[in-house]
Amino acid sequence: MISDLDPRGVRLFVLQVTFLVLVYIFISLRILVKSLTTKKISLDDWFIFAAVIVYTSHATITIWGIVYASEVGDDDFKRGENIALHSWFLNEALYAPLSALIRTSIAVFLLRIATAKIHRNIIYVNLACTWVLTIVYFFIVVFQCSPSSYFYDQVLDPSGGSCIDKNIVPRTTIAHSISSAIQNFILAFLPIAILWHVKLNKRTKAGVATLLGMGLLAGICFIIRIPHVKFIPISSPDFLEQTNGTAFWSVMETSLGIIAGCAATLRPLMRGFGPGRTPWRRDSHHS
């Protein structure tokens, strides 16, 4: 099975499984912190939970596309290619909403600590740009072919539909990636501006540094992803091979985004395990 995959398929499979595990570790820690501190779910939590659900679907489709397409492709090459393209299409459609949900969760989290009007306005503009671009990109991706299923079925029936100009989606993807990278960098650096005049202890600084570092990494992944977006006809036999890099960096970016969003809320956990301290002390007179 896995040993029979193309090396790039193996790399993507290992990356996806590894980050899927890490994402669930971090979201579990976030839930643990919430259950032991505030004991209530806030709006940014709902957005990150929605992001994890979409991310899980994205990861499942990726793994299905890699493994099942390889198995079927051994006996029926065109059917295997059809499955791989189906996987690519579904994940391409999920990618923009997933990224938007992650950034929205982080933005809503920052709104809770932002008091200056300019900082809040920056966040609101960021959110508006995120969702306008996401909706536009989503519809272009989903309806690039007519019917939509022709995107992946054309390898089985070339005369079963039609698609828009092959350059439109790559150009839209590049525009979306550049915009998303800028938005990620804004959300990464904004905590510094928000907390510039606030005296912070080392653990709080570590939390801000973590959010900054992860946010920057996610933004860098967006930029690295851009050169991998290629102007390749879907019917090209090299389509899946040439777009492997795009899939790789898409997994990296969304995974790091969720981890960054969760890491920013784990400060009480780290504080509780500081030297000479126990996490979430209880009253001594409770039995």
From TrEMBL:
Localization of this protein: Membrane
Cellular component annotations (GO), alphabetically ordered: membrane
Segment forming the signal sequence: none
Keywords recorded for this protein, A-Z: Membrane, Transmembrane, Transmembrane helix
Keyword Flavoprotein in annotation: no
Boundaries of every Rhodopsin domain copy: 29-271
Segments traversing the membrane: 12-33, 45-68, 88-111, 123-143, 174-196, 208-227, 247-266
Record bears the keyword Manganese: no
One Pfam family, short name: Fung_rhodopsin
InterPro entries in the cross-refs: Rhodopsin_dom_fungi, SAT4-like
Topology of the protein relative to the lipid bilayer: Multi-pass membrane protein
Family that this chain belongs to: Belongs to the SAT4 family.
Entry protein name: Rhodopsin domain-containing protein
Organism: Apiosordaria backusii
